[in-house]
């Protein structure tokens, strides 16, 4: 008789740490760099100046995204570590209360009192802190904050996204620079929305429309302001 093998499941939550930072970074890279290029171009700047502005935007944006993600996620990690330290103290000072608390969590989830108590006892005996971290605090190895991972994902994805409108500055003729940069950026945003939704297991059409629409609004506003400033200066 052949033994059945348990199949391996892959869930979207396993990618949540880097996926959020990567999608945010790429989206910001496309939108902010495209807006910068369109704003400068609408002000009737020379192609060389537009390209320099794009390079500066890419460099500054990638560095800012990396630093911001690192600081933000580090703060989240500090909060998680503080909660775990406090929980560890409570387990040492009042283990019975913590056992009852864990039991009540399972009861509220629909487990019978006697079964919940037995489950709580067994999990406490194996690793009390891990059980409370997961079921009381909502902290697990999958969702725990990873500052360096988030910073690297954000910076690299920002640079990748920013490269799209920047490349258009190189290949597009000056007379068509604005529409080509805008069109290429919107296509890139649509692809990003679809890929991000697919990777995260979300609705593809909704994510694609949302990302593309707001990107178009941002570029239109920036180009309009650039044209007004260029005309006034």
Describe the model:
This protein has seven helices and no strands. The chain has helices at residues 16-42, 47-93, 95-108, 113-135, 147-171, 177-200, 204-232. The longest helix is centred in the N-terminal third of the chain and has 47 residues, at 47-93. α2 packs antiparallel against α5 (147-171). The chain has 233 residues and is an all-alpha fold. The relative contact order is 0.19. The protein has one domain.
What does the secondary structure layout of this molecule look like, with pairings?
Blueprint: H1 16-42, H2 47-93, H3 95-108, H4 113-135, H5 147-171, H6 177-200, H7 204-232
Helix pairs in contact: 1-2, 1-5, 1-6, 1-7, 2-3, 2-4, 2-5, 3-4, 5-6, 6-7
Put the structure in a nutshell.
The chain is mainly alpha-helical and 233 residues long. It has seven helices and no strands.
**What's the overall geometry?**
elongated
Order of secondary-structure elements:
HHHHHHH
* Average pLDDT over all residues: 84
Radius of gyration: 25 Å
The major pleated sheet works out as: none
Taken as a percent bin, the fraction of beta residues is under 5%
Distance between the termini: 84 Å
Beta strand count: 0
Count of discrete alpha- or pi-helical segments spanning 4 or more residues: 7
Share of residues in helices: over 70%
Structural class: mainly alpha
- Regions with little confidence, pLDDT below 50 for 5+ residues: 10-14
Count of domains? 1
What distinguishing features does this structure have?
7 helices, mainly alpha, 81% helix
